[in-house]
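Final report, closing paragraph on structural work. Over the funding period we assembled a curated collection of sequence-structure pairs, and we close with a single example.
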Amino acid sequence: MDIDSSDAQYARDPSSLTAILADLEAQGYGGQFAAREGGRLVCFTCSTEHDAATTAMTALRRTEGASDPDDMLAIVALTCPSCQAKGTAVLNYGPEAPMADAEMLRALEDDRGGTGMLD
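Its predicted structure, as stored:
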């Protein structure tokens, strides 16, 4: 079966996870966040846990592609509502995603000005 990598189901971004994280870090997103159950996230800079719905997502990049469709990661750029640290969270999405990751992605406030969560 031939796979058309231009198909919309595949990410158009050929960058690796490492390259995406380096690019976002160069833009000032050097901190780290992690998903918690119930649509919450924790900031590793100030160790504060927040409802993801109160946290604005300013960028979202995906890794996925024709070479490895199982590699479904969303790299999200965030700003902590408590300490204002800018950082990233690496989340799985799709049918194999842990519940905490899926809940966080659904709950985040999309502040990118796009039309959908995984644009």
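The longest strand covers residues 56-63. The longest helix spans residues 17-26. We thank the funder for supporting this effort.
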